[in-house]
Structures are given as structure tokens and as C-alpha cells.
Amino acid sequence: MADHVRKQVRDAIVTALTGLTTTQNRVFRSRVYPLSVADLPGLCVQMPVEETSPSTIHVPALQERNIDLAVSAYVEESADLDDELDAIAKEVETALSSILTVAGVNVEPIYVGMDTEFDGEAEKPHGVMRIRYRVRVFTAANAPDTLL
């Protein structure tokens, strides 16, 4: 049995973002603990919300899944913090501007916005930019591991 479609999409996003000029291979799936200084600058890929609705009245129903994707860029505090975050955002947006192929199905991350926060109270002061996307995929209600 294949992995859940969210994991398949998340893995494809991580692959697309690995090797960028600024963050290189410092791309992580959702993390509970903050990145260490050795992981900066780095990216965390998270899918915090999914909304699903039936697209057919047949059984099993065809489900439209709208998955919120957040790519969080972490940068160590410096005089150029905003510029560094914007440079990473440019690399991320460029990498995710193409259609991804997941299990033979085209998946398009749609850019929906970004937000930033700065933490001067942390062990190592840093800035975070969350680059937000929406990913729409379809599955059958009884097969959440198969993209349609």
C-alpha cells in the first residue's frame, strides 16, 4: 500500500526544494523542535490544514482535497535578515512554480501568500518566513493513498 497522499505530496515538495542555492540540503519535514544553528538557513515543510469535500454522489465518493502547505524559511539574525529571507523566498517560489509529478499525477502548488516573524528571545535570535501554498488533489474516499 502506498503512503497517504499528503505524505506523497510532502515528499515531492521536499525533493523539489532540496539543493536550492541558499538552503542546500537543509530541508526538513514538519518539526516539533526548532532548527539548530547548524541547520540555518533552512526550510521546514508543513501541511497544517486539509479541507476535503465530496465531488460526486457515487460511492465511494471522489474527494477534492485542498491541502495548505507552509514552507518555513529560518534565518539566523543579522543586519541582512529581511534580504536573506526574500532571497530564500525567491528560490522557493521559483522551485515550486512548476507542476510536480506525484505518482504519475500532475500536482500544482498555488502560491497564496507569506508572513514573517522574528524571535529575539530564542537561544539564537532568528527570523522565519512562512511561504504559503494551496495544493488541490483528488482521491477516492476509500483510497486516500491514490491520487486521481
Explain what you see.
With 148 residues, the protein is an alpha+beta fold. The chain has a single domain, classed as Alpha-Beta Plaits (2-Layer Sandwich), CATH 3.30.70.1700. It has 2 helices and 7 strands. The strands form 2 sheets. It has a 5-stranded mixed beta sheet with strand order 1-2-3-7-6. The protein has a two-stranded antiparallel ribbon with strand order 4-5. The mean pLDDT is 92.
**Name of the CATH class:** Alpha Beta
CATH superfamily label: Phage minor tail protein U
User: Compute the gyration radius: what is it?
Assistant: 17 Å
Q: Name the CATH architecture.
A: 2-Layer Sandwich
| Extended strand count | 7
Question: How many independent structural domains?
Answer: 1
Shape: elongated
Strand order of the largest sheet: 1-2-3-7-6
Average per-residue pLDDT, rounded, comes to 92
Give helix and strand order, one letter per element, not per position: HEEEHEEEE
Strand percentage: 35-45%
- CATH fold-level assignment: Alpha-Beta Plaits
Poorly predicted runs of 5 or more residues: none
Q: Please give the share of residues in helix.
A: 10-25%
Structural class assignment = alpha+beta
Between the first and last Cα atoms, what is the distance in angstroms?
Answer: 16 Å
Biggest sheet descriptor = 5 strands, mixed
Output the number of helix runs.
2
